[in-house]
Amino acid sequence: MTRFSHAEFPRARPRRLRSDAGVRRLVAESRLSADDLVWPLFIHADSGETAIEAMPGVRRLGATALLTAAERALELGIPAIALFPAIDPALKTADGREAWNEQGLVQHSIATIKQRFPELVIIADVALDPFTSHGQDGMIDDQARVLNDETIAVLIRQALSLAQAGADFVAPSDMMDGRVGAIRDALESAGHHDTRILAYAAKYASGFYGPFRAAVGSAQQLGNADKRTYQMDPANSDEALREVALDIAEGADAVMVKPGMPYLDIVSRVSQAFSVPTFVYQVSGEYTMLRTAVDNGLLDSSVIAESLLAFRRAGAAAILTYFAADVAAQL
Ligand code: PBG
């Protein structure tokens, strides 16, 4: 590391490397490219599109709009999408069984996209919250405690149905202990050797997920309950390294840190400590903050790309962001 002391001035003038755009480009240490982006999309069983009030500019897509978005991703050079379903409340149950329905909304959507656009990478979430009548990511007991091992049995069925439908990645986002290993074993036994696991390894119990819960319709189900008995405490950093180490040992191909911007220190530590790709999720609340500030003229729209570049600088290999298409269109 070079250190500039006062004595070195004026021989050392860091501004020389900033004085024109060409040189700035030459010496840039990180770069943002459409190649690094994953576009999360909300889907529903209705044929039309509905606005999501908590996420200005984001819509729940029907089958036709989903195919249009998939095509747009490819045109913009975005390699991957991630699917999140808003499930008909009538299909929600205590055990979330709709999660592994082979004809379910997500499974059907994956198959349809894969038929039209086989080269588009599809990341499918593994967690029960869009499907449970109580909005938790897992099964609960009579005192509403979230059950770990019972939940894993359901997550396995869900992961297998998603792999069967053609998902390129299954992405457990539930934070149950031991689920990555159990899902890996089940995928191997079923012959899905090449289905990758993107583990939401360091996922914090965050208020920044609020708009997402409104988007998939789990907020109402959850009520005043929270997810702090399984998602991580925002106070912790060493614990994130332990979670990541466990998920890698259990067979995760890539790991995720979530949320993004308030957790850049975690992205940095994880990406330096491990040699699997670190994904980061710029979550719904981060999107809404930036979107509304830009839409109201309070911040310049350049903050969007800047926020994504910061993830790259911190060491992220890939970024899930609701801005993916907007940013890719500018790059
Ligand atoms: C649920 C899940 C959540 C998100 C992705 N998967 C919400 C939660 O854990 O409550 C949040 C994504 C976002 O806020 O954009 N398993």
Task: Summarize, please.
It contains twelve helices and twelve strands. The radius of gyration is 21 Å and the shape is globular.
Arithmetic mean of pLDDT: 96
In DSSP terms (H or I, runs of 4 or more residues), the helix count works out at 12
The fourth-level CATH homologous superfamily is Aldolase class I
Low-confidence stretches: none
- The strand order across the widest sheet is 1-4-5-8-9-10-11-12
Coarse morphology: globular
Q: What are the secondary-structure elements, in order, as H or E?
A: HEEEHEHEEEHEHEHHHEHEHHEH
Look at the helices and sheets and give the structural class.
alpha/beta
- Strand residue content: 15-25%
Catalogue the ligands.
ligand PBG
Largest sheet: 8 strands, parallel, barrel
Q: How much helical structure, as a percent, in the residues?
A: 25-40%
- Quaternary: single chain
Q: How many strands?
A: 12
Number of domains: 1
What's the architecture, going by CATH? Alpha-Beta Barrel
What is the element layout, followed by pairings?
Layout: H1 21-27, E1 37-44, E2 50-51, E3 59-61, H2 63-75, E4 80-86, H3 105-116, E5 121-126, E6 139-140, E7 146-147, H4 148-165, E8 169-172, H5 179-189, E9 196-203, H6 210-216, H7 219-222, H8 238-249, E10 254-258, H9 264-273, E11 278-282, H10 284-295, H11 302-314, E12 318-321, H12 324-330
Parallel strand pairs: 1-3, 1-4, 1-12, 4-5, 5-8, 8-9, 9-10, 10-11, 11-12
Antiparallel strand pairs: 2-3, 6-7
Bound molecules: ligand PBG.
Ligand PBG is lined by residues 125, 127, 129, 137, 173-174, 209, 212-213, 227, 283-284.
